[in-house]
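Researcher: Can you fold this with 6-phosphogluconic acid in place?
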Amino acid sequence: MTASSYSFAATICSLATRSRSPRQSSPPPNLRLTLRPAGQSPILRSIRPIASPSGNKHTHKIKAAAAEMATEKGKGNVQVYDTEEDLSVSLAKYTAELSEKYAKERGAFTVVLSGGSLIKSLRKLVEPPYIGSVEWSKWHVFWVDERVVPKDHPDSNYLLAYEGLLSKVPVLPGNVYAINDALSAEAAADDYETCVKHLVKNKIIDQSEANGFPKFDLMLLGMGPDGHVASLFPGHPHLEENKQWITYVKDSPKPPPERITFTFPVINSSANIALVVAGSGKAHPVHVALGDGQSPDLLPVQMVSPEGELTWFLDKQAASKL
Ligand SMILES: O=C(O)[C@H](O)[C@@H](O)[C@H](O)[C@H](O)COP(=O)(O)O
């Protein structure tokens, strides 16, 4: 592949040098689950509360093709699909509905992508009816994390999204905010944060009234087999970052090592988060996050607790231990 194959011109935010404040720690929010009445959708049926301390293990089994549960706060739900194909159909509908809502309400829809298998799970968006019905010109596209590599590098999350989604829909190139890949990881994180600050100031990105962090309309998160989300890995000090909006990693356990990533305060200020998880390799962290599975350390995915709505999109294999 050559760089000339990529005609899609993303906006690259300009470098701004500024000092970074020292890290401070804060206790992670816990995701605790209780039962909510069954969903209205015909494909959804209720299951018993998976977090019940006295519950019989057999009652925790998912008995339907799809199930819905809710957090204690009544925000967020867990949807389990028979197949990843079913999951992708539902994910496209969910994303298109949020796009319509925010395009109408705010005149813009701010969407944050992950890398990994998420992009493949968004494939139905580039098919009818969504390819024609979504107001793509209202989309503003960001990355929750990016590998610090050139945009035409096979490891680039930008390239992955470009090939799987952005090159197939009429999103405005000026509304796609890629990292500046000419910079070091630290400078690219600074630069991307400056870009996001500018867009908050211009009201393209909403802002949390509670804490002033950017409030993206939709954050689409994948999860690794170790329970990481974005480039926030188990046991890493950046899990406790509570000042910076965007930070950097030079020692990612998942290659490539150099990345930038949104921090938890930004992730958790989102209006909507979709956690999209498929495959049996993810069953253990799903069990820890949503059921009674054990982990010696708090998993990053357990720290996902948005100001708005959290929706889990699981396939049966990922939910097999619940
Ligand atoms: O750049 C990255 O590595 C991703 O953004 C990362 O956070 C991803 O979402 C998870 O690792 C899940 O990836 P998979 O879905 O491919 O397992």
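Model: Folded with 6-phosphogluconic acid in place. The chain has one domain: 34-49+62-315.
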